Amino acid sequence: MSLVAGDAERLKGIDGLACDLDGVIYRGAEPIDGSPEAIGRLRELGVRVVFCTNNASPTIDRYLNKLRTMGVEVEPEELVTSAVVTVEVLSERGVLGKKAIVVGEDGLREALNSIGLEVNDDENSVSADFVVVGFDQTFNYAALRRASFAIQGGAQLIACNADASFPAADGLWPGAGSLVAAIETASGVRAEVMGKPHEQMMRSTERHLGNASRIAIAGDRPSTDLEGGRVMGWTTILVLSGVTSRDDLQILATPPDIVLERLADLPELLTDLRA
Q1: Which residues of 145-168 are buried (b: 16+ CB within 10 A; e: fewer)?
Q2: Torsion, CA 226, CA 231, CA 236, CA 239, rounded to 10
Q3: How far apart are the C-alpha atoms of 167 and 59, rounded to whole Å?
Q4: Alpha-carbon distance 181 to 194, whole Å?
Q5: Which among 91, 108, 113, 229 could bridge 104 via Cys, Cβ 3.0 to 4.6 Å?
Q6: What is the pLDDT of residues 23-74, one digit of tens each?
């Protein structure tokens, strides 16, 4: 039986799926067994799929290439990253002539450059209107000090996400949220967070799902993926292929609607409901 917990009837009529990536489609560079095929099958069943990820590090092209290499065909408009959401929000507020200090990698930098926000990479300068934080494997004490000084000087602290960890092929790596926490502690300022489960990310994902009338969200992290979906009134699907284990189910404050071992089990349930 593919259903670990929940009532399969909650999936009836689903025509839109917000799907996480890390821990759901892949772990690191390795696809999770059956997940790429599941996306194709869901589309055959008439479900519109939009991928939403809190990971702002890769560029959109890198995401597209990675997914396509795994056999998942995806268009740019079917991919919502926390970097995409961050620039949507900042562009609405106006960034002409403004500067940002960035703790982050290529995907975040590319996104910020696309809206004309000047990235200040002068290590001796703390001049900035924003400090924007994502995952960054080069993060060090000097970067922490510089970000803290800029925020104390009036820069707004923007976090792409607050995920403390993320599932890689060899285990759980410290996530962007770990870096955000360090900067918050050093500066004494709380970040404005853009990624799941916050409204900016959820509303953006909903827009990308177009005319889907009944939406589900599939993720491996109850505190972000599923909490964001719950607030939106979506059906929540927890998969156990990422950071959450069976043992963790006993201590969840808010149980998900559906629990599956992996995403590959979802098309089978939908097919059974339509039989």
Answers
A1: ebbbbbbeeebbbbbbbbbbebbe
A2: 0
A3: 19
A4: 15
A5: 108
A6: 999 998 899 999 999 999 999 999 999 999 999 999 999 999 999 999 999 9
